[in-house]
């Protein structure tokens, strides 16, 4: 089976594949021939029966962007890794409509209602983008998007890829949004990073959060998550394997590579960290906007 099956078939990509087979043709010619064969860009058709309170002031927002740029430059100069992380929206796995259009002869029939009872399950993509290597890693969870899941995903990335690609690393810089499973206010997020990542691998971990309402500037959003959405647009994610294959086959002209893994571990909402456990976290808040910037060092 060719990898093209799991790639969005734009006329430019089809022309490139044909050129590789010894058939030189332009993208406009591909478009004309597709229309002659009754192909057109179509959306999914529902035929199968079956929802910022305290925005930061402008000065703090600008200071944080400048500070993140300084931290990125500082870490990159010594060859340490920088990863941008975020959760993609929850996906229902099944024969459901997926926004967007793709080249097909007939519209793909999908369920006329998005009932969870008709789903195979749910997919919660937690994504990491390695900025130095232009490489993405997505962990597709099946239960809840919690701080424990986010920390486990980063730990799994470091264990599988990070420490072998950065054997001399003396620090890991994480760029994250202010809310969600990696919220700057979450004690569980910090406690899990301390114990699962920093203590376990004796690795200092610095976290810088983008200000509320600024998630679109987080590199993972426009360099990885948007490309995944474009690759599977118009295609129902009818199984976990389908979702994983589309994620893995996401590519860009700049050389983006993506890995994807299914995580069936169950995560419970509402986990708490006691005052005693939280006091044991070896956290150092930075002088610049300490609510958004801090470093965890290997401790107890």
Q: Could you tell me the strand content as a percent range?
A: 15-25%
Number of helices: 8
Give the helices and strands as they follow along the chain.
HHEEHEEEEEEHEHEHHEHEE
Outline the low-pLDDT stretches.
Answer: none
- How many structural units, i.e. domains? 1
Biggest beta-sheet profile: 9 strands, mixed
Query: What's the CATH C level?
Result: Alpha Beta
The overall pLDDT, averaged over residues, is 93
Total DSSP E strands? 13
Classify the secondary structure makeup into a structural class. Answer: alpha/beta
Shape: globular
Question: Radius of gyration, rounded?
Answer: 21 Å
First and last CA, distance: 50 Å
Q: In CATH terms, what is the fold-level topology?
A: Nucleotidyltransferase, domain 5
What level of helicity do the residues show? 25-40%
Indicate the CATH architecture.
Answer: 2-Layer Sandwich
Topology of helices and strands:
Blueprint: H1 11-20, H2 27-36, E1 40-42, E2 45-48, H3 58-77, E3 82-87, E4 91-93, E5 102-104, E6 109-111, E7 121-130, E8 135-141, H4 147-165, E9 172-176, H5 187-201, E10 205-209, H6 219-231, H7 240-248, E11 257-263, H8 275-279, E12 283-285, E13 293-296
Parallel strand pairs: 2-6, 3-9, 8-11, 9-10
Antiparallel strand pairs: 1-5, 3-7, 4-7, 7-8, 10-13, 12-13
Helix pairs in contact: 1-2, 4-5
Summed up, what is this model?
This protein has 300 residues and is of the alpha/beta class. Helix content is 34%, strand content 21%. It has a single domain, classed as Nucleotidyltransferase, domain 5.
Note down, in words, how this protein is organized:
The structure is a single chain. The protein is an alpha/beta fold and 300 residues long. The chain has a single domain (58-101, 114-296), classed as Nucleotidyltransferase, domain 5. 34% of the residues lie in helices and 21% in strands. The chain has helices at residues 11-20, 27-36, 58-77, 147-165, 187-201, 219-231, 240-248, 275-279, and strands at residues 40-42, 45-48, 82-87, 91-93, 102-104, 109-111, 121-130, 135-141, 172-176, 205-209, 257-263, 283-285, 293-296. Strand 7 and strand 8 (135-141) form a beta hairpin.
């Amino acid at each position: 089976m060719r990898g093209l099956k799991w790639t969005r078939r734009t006329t430019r990509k089809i022309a490139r594949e044909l050129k590789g087979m010894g058939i030189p043709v332009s993208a406009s010619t591909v478009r004309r021939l597709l229309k002659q064969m009754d192909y057109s860009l179509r959306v999914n058709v529902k035929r199968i029966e079956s929802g910022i309170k305290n925005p930061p002031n402008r000065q703090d927002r600008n200071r944080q962007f400048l500070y993140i740029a300084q931290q990125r430059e500082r870490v990159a100069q010594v060859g340490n890794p920088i990863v941008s992380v975020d959760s993609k929206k929850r996906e229902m796995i099944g024969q459901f409509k997926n926004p967007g259009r793709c080249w097909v002869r007939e519209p793909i029939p999908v369920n006329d209602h998005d009932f969870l009872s008709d789903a195979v399950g749910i997919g919660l993509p937690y994504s990491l983008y390695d900025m130095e290597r232009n490489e993405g890693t997505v962990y597709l969870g099946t239960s809840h998007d919690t701080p424990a899941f986010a920390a486990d995903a980063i730990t799994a990335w470091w264990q599988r890829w990070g420490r072998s690609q950065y054997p001399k690393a003396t620090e890991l810089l994480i760029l994250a949004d202010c809310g969600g499973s990696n919220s700057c206010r979450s004690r569980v997020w910090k406690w899990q990073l301390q114990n699962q990542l920093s203590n376990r691998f004796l690795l200092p971990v610095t976290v810088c959060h983008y200000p509320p309402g600024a998630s679109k500037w987080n590199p993972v959003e426009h360099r990885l998550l948007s490309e995944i959405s474009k690759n599977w647009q118009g295609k129902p994610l009818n199984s976990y394997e389908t979702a994983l294959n589309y994620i893995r086959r996401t590519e860009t002209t700049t050389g983006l590579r993506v890995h994807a893994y299914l995580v069936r571990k169950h995560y419970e909402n509402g986990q708490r960290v006691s005052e005693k456990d939280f006091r044991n976290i070896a956290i150092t808040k930075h002088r610049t906007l300490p609510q958004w910037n801090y470093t965890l060092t290997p401790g107890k």
